[in-house]
UniProtKB/TrEMBL annotation:
It comes from the Eukaryota. This is Gamma-butyrobetaine dioxygenase-like. InterPro entries: AlphaKG_dependent_hydroxylases, GBBH-like_N_sf, Ig-like_dom, TauD-like_sf, TauD/TfdA-like. Its cofactor is Fe(2+). It comes from Paramuricea clavata (Red gorgonian).
Amino acid sequence: MAPPRDTPTFSYEITANVPNVSSPEAEKVSFSKDRKHLKCVWPDGHESEYHLEWLRNNRMPEREELRKHFNTDSLVKDDLILWDAGMLQDKIPLYDCKAVMNDDTTLFKYLYSLYQYGLVLLDDGPVRQDFLFELATRIGWFQKTYLGDINNLKVEDNPISVGCTAKGLYIHTDLPYLRSSPDIQALHCLEQSPSGGMSTFADGFHAVKQLKRDSPDAFRVLTTFPMRFYDEGVADFGEYCFGFSAPMIKMLD
């Protein structure tokens, strides 16, 4: 969807004083006397010193090492389990909330199931809005968005989003118009409607693998042709307008 003509656009120019280094290769490399530090002299004359442990912990993996962690079709990582409705209907991995929050072994199993299936359920959680924040910080870093720390959705008389209605939604991916969309999303039901409220999930990896097998031309288009994702509206901080362009399916290099 293209932005409306009257949408204001902004451009920013960022400048910085960066040394003009024609080559990333150091001109001279040597070890310190204790053999625990690496000294580098760069083409512009400045020197750097790195601890060997820091270099080991921050090194970039070689391409061959990366390939070891991926299947030959480059679509899925090792240990991922591709699924469809027949495989996972009424069999979604389920964990007790208190155990996940208090026991590291259960937390590991919970996260590993999430890694394998991309979907996991948490049972018997507390009925309060701030619990999602506690769960997020239990797992890792909490990513804020323009919607705030937590986006509270409820049916409204004058909704600003289809998510604030009682209408059913088709299968979708949230926030594709952001450059960095969420890696993990958590949904916490505080008050269940007397009827309805069923959720539908799909395995995107499984769908893409089938698409590549059955329709290679469509697969090529969806992995190479950039799509325009766009959203505008009003949040607590005021009006917003977001747009991002990327292929519908992003492949690993």
